[in-house]
């Protein structure tokens, strides 16, 4: 199989139209068999539920080429389950976990030529999503849905790759208490667009959202969870009902404890204590681990001792172990690496 002729090492995080995608439709209370198709476009009624009341959710995972030439993905069962949870909250029909994994496999296999080679620095981003497709004008759930998966080869989410980011505390909220912050609903991301454009205009890479009720606790960014390293080498990561349960963060908690022997604390993190941490990072499928060098809180700066030139030493160890597991150079815990080819 011949790979596409792309400049893999210089890809950004963008959409490239690959050859194949997966589509399954839900009607009369059941999902059809699903198929791989070549048509990247969707034609829908003007009143489809997705257009009117934003009934849509999505997932994000990646396929990696390992050192020994296999194509694998990372814990797809957790993405499948999280999508089931998102669907439940949005009154959408669950796409079964086993079928989700099978659909990911089929889509990646069909697009093998688009999977970046080992060592290129790029990966294949996989985007499963679901939309409400039939007309709804009264505010109620639709009765017909489409589940799709497309893939796109990607490089680093943040320009500059592993260079430490400058972020700011944000005066807007992305999620409400008892709202939808804990699921991957498209509406959460719509909520974050004003804030991210504003952050970029002000010269910041990302927003640090605080808890909407008290604005004293760290939540997450628009697309990643936070990790912190204390001065005595503990791994601390915020716990909140209104943040997305990041698969990367849950995996890093295991990596920190079992591979690096660190004490792990998953707890409420007061913004007040952030200035005392030694290292800070963002973690997620797209972000991988992106170091944060500086946080601007309404003009007051928190500068982490790890500086603005490179990742802090513990962040680096976490990054190397996690990506080693994903690319097959570090032995993975049972069930984490799912071989596709
Ligand atoms: N938080 C938000 C809001 C996200 O969009 C993402 C990305 O999926 C994450 C956290 C990280 O989650 P994961 O590690 O499962 O990709
Ligand atoms: C992911 O990491 O998969 C996400 O969905 C985050 C998004 C900001 C690209």
Q: Quick recap of the structure?
A:
The protein is an alpha+beta fold and 341 residues long.
CATH class category name of the largest domain: Alpha Beta
Bound molecules: pyridoxal-5'-phosphate, 2-OXO-4-methylpentanoic acid
Instruction: Tell me the CATH topology of the largest domain.
Output: D-amino Acid Aminotransferase, Chain A, domain 2
**Strand runs, count:** 17
What portion of the residues fall into strands of 2 or more residues? 25-35%
Helix content: 10-25%
Second rung of CATH, namely the architecture of the largest domain: Alpha-Beta Barrel
Instruction: Work out the helix count.
Output: 6
Q: What does this protein structure show overall?
A:
- This protein is an alpha+beta fold and 341 residues long.
- The chain is globular and about 55 Å long.
- 23% of the residues lie in helices and 26% in strands.
- Strand 14 (279-284) and strand 15 (288-297) form a beta hairpin.
- It folds into 2 domains: 8-154, Aminotransferase class 4, branched-chain amino acid transferase, N-terminal domain (D-amino Acid Aminotransferase, Chain A, domain 1, 2-Layer Sandwich), CATH 3.30.470; 165-325, Alpha-Beta Barrel (D-amino Acid Aminotransferase, Chain A, domain 2).
- The strands form 2 sheets. Strands 1, 2, 3, 4, 5, 6, 7, 8 and 17 form a 9-stranded antiparallel sheet that branches. Strands 9, 10, 11, 12, 13, 14, 15 and 16 form an 8-stranded mixed sheet that branches.
- The chain binds pyridoxal-5'-phosphate and 2-OXO-4-methylpentanoic acid (COI).
- Residues 60, 220, 223-225, 244, 246-249, 284-285 line the site of pyridoxal-5'-phosphate.
């Amino acid at each position: 199989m011949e790979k596409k002729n792309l400049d893999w090492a210089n890809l950004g995080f963008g959409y490239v139209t690959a050859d194949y995608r997966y589509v399954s439709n839900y009607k009369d209370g059941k999902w059809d068999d699903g198929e791989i198709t070549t048509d990247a476009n969707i034609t829908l009624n003007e009143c489809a539920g997705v257009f009117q009341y934003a009934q849509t959710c999505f997932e994000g995972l990646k396929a990696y080429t390992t050192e020994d030439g296999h194509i694998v993905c990372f814990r797809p069962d957790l993405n499948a389950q999280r999508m089931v949870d998102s669907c439940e909250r949005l009154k959408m029909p669950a796409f079964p976990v086993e079928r989700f994994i099978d659909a990911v496999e089929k889509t990646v296999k069909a697009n093998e030529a688009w999977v970046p080679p080992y060592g290129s620095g790029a990966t294949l981003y996989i985007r499963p999503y679901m939309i409400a497709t039939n007309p709804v004008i009264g505010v109620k759930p639709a009765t017909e849905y489409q589940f799709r998966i497309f893939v796109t080869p990607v490089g680093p989410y943040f320009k500059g790759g592993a260079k430490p980011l400058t972020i700011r505390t944000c005066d807007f909220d992305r999620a409400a208490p008892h709202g939808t912050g804990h699921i991957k609903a498209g509406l959460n991301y719509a909520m974050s667009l004003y804030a991210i454009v504003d952050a970029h205009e002000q010269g910041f890479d990302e927003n640090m959202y605080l808890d909407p009720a008290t604005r004293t606790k760290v939540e997450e960014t628009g697309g990643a969870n936070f990790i912190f390293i204390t001065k005595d080498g503990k791994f601390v990561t915020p716990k909140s009902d209104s943040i997305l349960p990041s698969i990367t963060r849950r995996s890093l908690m295991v990596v920190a404890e079992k591979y690096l022997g660190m004490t792990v604390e998953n707890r409420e993190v007061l913004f007040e204590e952030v200035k005392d941490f030694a290292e800070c990072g963002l973690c997620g499928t797209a972000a991988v681990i992106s170091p944060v060098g500086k946080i601007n809180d309404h003009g007051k700066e928190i500068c982490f001792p790890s500086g603005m030139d490179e990742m802090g030493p513990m962040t680096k160890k976490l990054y190397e172990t996690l990506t080693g597991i994903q690319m097959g150079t570090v032995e993975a815990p049972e069930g984490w690496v799912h071989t596709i080819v």
